[in-house]
Design goal:
heterotrimer; A alpha+beta; B alpha+beta; C alpha+beta; A: alpha+beta; Uridine Diphospho-n-acetylenolpyruvylglucosamine Reductase, domain 2; Uridine Diphospho-n-acetylenolpyruvylglucosamine Reductase, domain 3; 5-stranded antiparallel β-sheet; 14 strands; 24% strand; C: alpha+beta; Aldehyde Oxidoreductase, domain 3; Aldehyde Oxidoreductase, domain 4; 3 domains; 7-stranded mixed β-sheet; 5-stranded mixed β-sheet
Chain lengths: 307, 159, 762
């Protein structure tokens, strides 16, 4: 049966109740940008969809230095891309969002949907991982939180249990002297699924040279997006020389476990991890050092229309 | 799965219709409302031919569940011109040769209208970015970009 | 340049208003009362015998009105040309994954889709062959074991799956190679390409009360669809009316019968109108794309840079059926050069993949990539400037073209000079940047063409042709009519046509509409004008040669106030002895009129990723006369961008085991987006053709030929690596930069086998 029923969730509690009632035969939709494609392709055949889009409270974005960034799961990718706080403090997330699909899809797709689809190539995911996002999950038993690093279990598989809904992502406020960038490797400047995506976040000590913290996350080179922790460990507490960035990039490459597919061979993907890790670190470092890079320039770097 | 009631404003007219729960906004516009100006090129969100303005923002209508647009406001390519005049974007597409086969044209025009609402004086790069989700196989985009910039100029000078 | 009143002006398209308002009606926009929706079931096997098809469960599904399979059609094979190698729907065998095996008509689309899932097809697998070089080898699994019995098969060379072998020879090629100072050999491979039209195949079929079949089609060739439909339905051609709707892009893919037979038969079975619209995956998997082509070139050159001999072997993959021929191999193996001795061969092999289709001068882009890359490599090897090497060997007026025609006056040298000047060649660019050129050749398309022009009583004219509008051809035809008759563009009404109404004409493709159909319009206008002049001469009492026709009137040249408007003359004609004024023209072929284009790309290569960024693209084409410069530029820009996609990102990938399309969507088949392109610089050269309307030449095809070679040559200039395989992806460029083998296999051994079979000395 191809047909499905459309169930409108009035509020979060109602959504959870609907999901419990319909069990595995139902799917959550919000932007429905992935859902409709996968349904038409025959991958997903639910008997009912539960629409969250009407729950306005889940779409908010707020920032405070104390609580960091709170992203309601229903915030559209476009609202993430254009949010002034995100552009200023979480550049890799803004560039991840801006390199995702095209304008029309970004106006529909939600950040929560991007996370819950758990595509290894999801464009916002490396940045969310690199900014230590925490997931808030509501379910029949109440609310729980989970680091995003533990949320992804495999392609399309997440830690969400029956009846649970991802409601919010929380990203701690970056420390001063932090810079970040996401670069997506893809043949075209828009619309593509990433061949490789790399997000790097660099925080410098007051001396402006020593690395206080570095976080690197990789997309499309494993069953889930993930943090390249060994590469990060090479950088913390050290002076960031070009040679050291190169070593970290090699460590990131060693951590990658890509596959061959229509978008590229495993070998090429590994090479791209090295190239893009170096590049994102270089730019993040410059931004952490105080170099102003306009959003337009970040966008060009992110989609590789500027080398 | 019986059809369900949907209240939606399309090109300024409030419509009360019944649609199948699995119907997209695109199929609803075309099959139920016979607004066939909005085109289906891929039904996967990859080509932009089905772009409409939904609650102020350009979206690919093939990826919108019609029922999720309950109470929404939709503008399609049929809603741009008045009986007396074309929309400046439409006029500029004609004058600059921004169309050939015409199949992608409604989607490109709606993406341009969406852009100019938010950014009345875009640069050429911003125009290209705004139509980055629209495929056109005939024009090579040069004249499309020129047309959108011309429309922006004219609209800005009217304000 | 002659002065024109209508031509050479940027007039808006005649269909622009409809298209920008969403009113233009494409086949999918046709809704009829009681209309059913059709969906087709594609084969899940590459090569298999159909043991049984059980449609009973699908038939029983509520809302399903009819289900058909191959045996519901007459047992008649058809083909794209003389060779009839194909049933419209699989009968006893399937030849590729996706091949239609059944179709359903149901009350709505979702019911039709649900019914497909209930059809049970039992297959007995046969061994498939996917690679064309393997297919050509003796002992390969045979795709069409009974090929020799097919109507129209005329090739007798022994070999696995040779569908067609075309050849062209001149001079003593072996001797010339022996005598040449240098001999260069290279193999090039181009990728599978999809035409990428935005409007999926669509049609509506309806059996009318009088028993005639009406088909609203998305087609470039309504008369071809009518003839082929009549053939596969075994029905008199006169029982079919094809209405070509607005065409949402075709580029060759919509020249012939596609799926129109399925809704037609379903309409005959149900008595209801039936609509079929492909989804994008079906477009990729069922509707003839272009397959990868291997081109082998061998060139003999003297020390001074004069080319003396060329051997070219094209290995062309037609997939399951000969949807389009390998003519490019013999037609374009020399490129735009005068080469006295040549041996050109085009082998077409059957494989178990979706059948090949036409696309914007099928195969010439593949061959241009090979020839123009090869030319660059030879120039570098000889230490010559690539542009000078081309100039030295370029074909000139009075030379004999590969097809045996004398080369008439043309603008080849002017095009090269214009590009050289625009870019300031030869030119040194910074590290990582490079410039490359390509010279492209084509001919103005010809074939049966007709036109009819009626003069209306208000002075307007109605233009009727059977040709479908592509890329603004209606606007061009209206411009030609207006120019000929001395009236304004808005005085020409372009009639909506169908196959009952309009006179027969060839399909809209191969760059033939403006050149040939335009000529028919010019002649029809001349005919109408002569009739207007004759009538005016009679009424004004002056000799006909004292009259002229301009600005909507016929007037006495020595006394312009003495005149009659076209409207007055049309009104008079109704009651005149000679009757209403209608101009007609009909022609078959026009003489050879070559078209040349010079193109140049500038690129920046990212040494870390291999990514190639196109930073500048310049093209210059000899268009004869620009019927509408804005439209001409638009065609050249669009064509170049298709070529840029072919050069850099587009790549239809086929599974090497099953032949299935691995990337059947716009998310994975990557056509250029606005963001990926520099501003295109388009230059026009105008050397009028001898026979085209007002001297016009074809425009559409050449712009797409140049980008692959121009960009490959620019990459070489930038970073010193030569890529012989398309697309010029980051992955390929990086592998070459790192010296890793990722290059095209030289096909010398396979050629030896082919030559031996041909009886040539090896």
């Amino acid at each position: 049966m191809l047909r499905f029923d459309f169930l409108e969730a009035r509020n979060l509690r109602h959504a959870i109740a609907l999901l419990q009632r319909h069990g595995n035969d139902s799917r959550v939709v919000a932007g429905s940008t992935d859902f409709l494609v996968r349904w038409r392709q025959g991958f997903w055949r639910p008997a009912a969809v539960v629409n969250l889009k009407g729950i306005a409270s889940l779409g908010r974005i707020s920032f405070s230095p104390r609580n960091g960034l709170r992203l309601g799961a229903l915030a559209t990718v476009q609202s993430v891309e254009s949010n002034a706080h995100i552009r200023r403090r979480y550049q890799a997330l803004a560039t991840g969002a801006t390199s995702f699909a095209g304008v029309q899809v970004r106006n529909l797709a939600t950040i929560g949907g991007n996370v819950c689809n758990a595509s290894p190539a999801g464009d916002t995911l490396p940045a969310l991982l690199a900014f230590d996002a925490q997931c808030t999950i509501a379910g029949p038993q109440g609310t729980r939180t989970l680091p995003l690093t533990e949320f992804f279990l495999g392609p399309g598989r997440t830690a969400l249990e029956q009846g649970e809904v991802l409601t919010q992502l929380t990203l701690p406020a970056p420390m001063p002297r932090t810079g970040s960038l996401y670069i997506k490797h893809s043949p075209r400047g828009a619309m593509d699924i990433a061949t490789v995506g790399v997000a790097s976040v660099v925080t410098l000590e007051e001396d402006g040279r020593t690395c206080r913290d570095a976080r690197i996350a990789l997309g499309a080179v494993g069953p889930t997006p993930f943090r390249a922790t060994e590469a990060e460990n090479l950088l913390r507490g050290r002076t960031l020389t070009p040679g050291l960035l190169g070593q970290a990039a090699q460590a990131a490459e060693a951590a990658a476990k890509p596959i061959d597919d229509v978008r590229g061979s495993a070998g090429y993907r590994r090479a791209m991890v090295e190239a893009l890790t170096t590049r994102t670190l270089q730019h993040a470092l410059q931004m952490a050092s105080g170099r102003a890079v306009t959003f337009e320039e970040q966008r060009r770097l992110a989609v590789q229309t500027a080398f | 799965m019986n059809k369900q009631p949907l209240a939606i404003t399309v090109n300024g007219h409030e419509r009360q219709i019944f649609v199948a729960p699995y119907y997209s906004l695109l199929d609803t516009l075309r099959d139920e409302l016979r607004l066939t100006g909005t085109k289906k090129g891929c039904d996967e969100g990859d080509c932009g031919a089905c772009t409409v303005i939904l609650d102020g923002k350009p979206v690919t209508s093939c990826l919108v569940l019609a029922m999720s647009a309950q109470g929404s406001d939709v503008t399609t390519v049929e809603g741009l011109a008045t009986p007396d005049a074309l929309h400046p974007v439409q006029q500029a597409f004609i004058e600059r040769g921004g169309l050939q086969c015409g199949y992608c044209t409604p989607g490109l025009i709606m993406a341009a209208v969406g852009l100019l609402q938010d950014n009345p004086r875009p640069s050429a790069e911003e125009v290209k970015f705004a139509i980055g989700g629209n495929l056109c196989r005939c024009t090579g985009y040069t004249k499309v970009v020129e047309a959108i910039l011309l429309a922006a100029d004219r609209m800005a000078s009217q304000c | 340049m002659a002065t024109f009143k209508v031509l050479e002006q940027n007039n808006p398209r005649v269909d622009a208003w409809e298209k920008v308002t969403g009113r233009a009606t494409y086949a999918g926009d046709v809704y009829l009362p009681g209309m059913l929706m059709c969906k087709t079931l594609g084969s899940s096997r590459s090569h298999a015998r159909i043991v049984s098809i059980d449609t009973s469960r699908a038939q029983a599904l509520p809302g399903v009105r009819a289900v058909i399979t191959g045996v519901d059609f007459p047992e008649i094979r058809f083909g794209s040309g003389a060779l009839k190698d194909r049933y419209i729907m699989a009968r006893d065998k399937v030849y590729y994954i996706g091949e239609p095996v059944a179709a359903v008509a149901a009350e709505d689309e979702i019911t039709a889709e649900e019914a497909l899932a209930l059809i049970d097809v039992q297959y007995e697998d046969l061994e498939p062959v996917v690679d064309p070089l393997t297919a050509l080898r003796a002992g390969s699994p045979s795709v069409h074991p009974d090929l020799e019995s097919y109507e129209g098969y005329g090739f007798t060379i022994e070999g696995g799956n040779i569908c067609t072998l075309l050849d062209a020879d001149r001079g003593d090629v072996e001797q010339a190679f022996q005598d040449a100072d240098h001999v260069f050999e290279d193999t090039f491979r181009s990728q599978g390409i999809n035409q990428g039209f935005l409007e999926p195949m669509a049609c509506v079929a309806n059996v009318e009360a009088n028993g005639r079949l009406t088909v609203w089609a998305s087609t470039q060739g309504p008369y071809q669809v009518r003839a082929q439909l009549a053939s596969v339905l075994d029905m008199p051609l006169s029982n079919i009316k094809v209405i070509p709707m607005e065409l949402g892009g075709g580029f060759g893919a919509k020249l012939r019968l596609a799926f129109e037979a399925f809704p037609s038969l379903l309409s005959m079975k149900t008595g209801s109108p039936v609509k079929l619209i492909n989804n994008r995956e079906e477009v990729f998997t069922q509707n003839g794309p272009r397959h990868p082509v291997t081109n082998y070139l061998k060139t003999g050159v003297n020390k001074d840079g004069t080319i003396v001999s060329r051997e070219a072997y094209t290995i062309f993959d037609v997939g399951a059926y000969l949807g389009a021929g390998p003519n490019s191999g013999i037609g374009h193996g020399l490129g735009a050069y005068d080469i006295p001795n040549f041996r050109l061969r085009s082998y077409a092999a059957y494989t178990n993949k979706v059948y090949v289709g036409s696309y914007r001068a099928s195969g010439v882009a593949d061959m241009t990539f090979a020839v123009e890359s090869h030319m660059d490599m030879i120039a570098h090897n000889l230490g010559m400037d690539p542009l000078d090497f081309r100039l030295k060997n370029a074909i000139k007026e009075g030379d004999t073209a590969v097809n045996g025609s004398r080369v008439p006056r043309n603008g080849l040298f002017e095009c090269l000079a214009a590009v050289k000047e625009r870019l300031g060649l030869p030119r040194e660019l910074p590290e990582g940047h490079g410039v490359g050129i390509a010279l492209c050749e084509w001919r103005s398309g010809t074939g049966p063409s007709t036109a009819s022009i009626s003069v209306n009583e208000d002075g307007t004219v109605s233009l009727l042709t059977g040709s479908v509008d592509i890329s603004g051809s209606d606007t061009s035809l209206a411009s030609i009519a207006a120019e000929s008759l001395g009236i304004a563009m808005d005085q020409v009404i372009v009639a909506r046509r169908d196959t009952d109404l309009a006179p027969f004409t060839g399909p809209s493709g191969g760059s033939r509409i403006v050149y040939s159909q335009g000529k028919a319009v010019e002649l029809a206008a001349e005919d109408a004008r002569n009739k207007l002049l004759a009538l005016a001469a009679d009424r004004l009492g002056v000799p006909q040669d004292a009259l002229a026709c301009a600005d909507g009137s016929v007037y006495v040249q020595d006394n312009p106030p003495q005149s009659l408007t076209l409207g007055q003359l049309a009104a008079m004609s109704v009651t005149s002895r000679s009757g209403p004024i209608v101009g007609n023209a009909s022609l078959s072929t026009l003489p050879y009129a070559p078209v040349f284009s010079a193109q140049a790309a500038e690129v920046q290569v990212d040494r870390d990723t291999g990514q190639v960024k196109l930073t500048r693209y310049v093209q210059c084409q000899d268009v004869g006369v620009a019927i509408n410069p804005m439209a001409v530029e638009g065609q050249l820009e669009g064509g170049a961008v298709q070529g840029i996609g072919r050069a850099l990102t587009e790549d239809m990938q086929f599974d090497p085991e099953t032949g299935a399309v691995r990337n059947p969507s716009f998310a994975s088949y990557l056509m250029p987006l606005a963001l990926d392109l520099p501003e295109l610089e388009t230059l026009l050269v105008r050397v009028p053709s001898e026979d085209g309307p007002f001297g016009a030449r074809a425009v559409a095809e050449p712009p797409g030929f140049g980008p692959p070679a121009a960009i490959a040559n620019a990459i070489y200039d930038a970073v010193g690596v030569r890529i012989r395989e398309l697309p010029l992806s980051g992955e390929r460029v990086l592998a070459a930069l790192r010296g890793e083998g990722n290059d095209v296999a030289y096909i010398g051994d396979e050629l030896q086998e082919l030559k031996r079979a041909e009886g040539l000395a090896v």
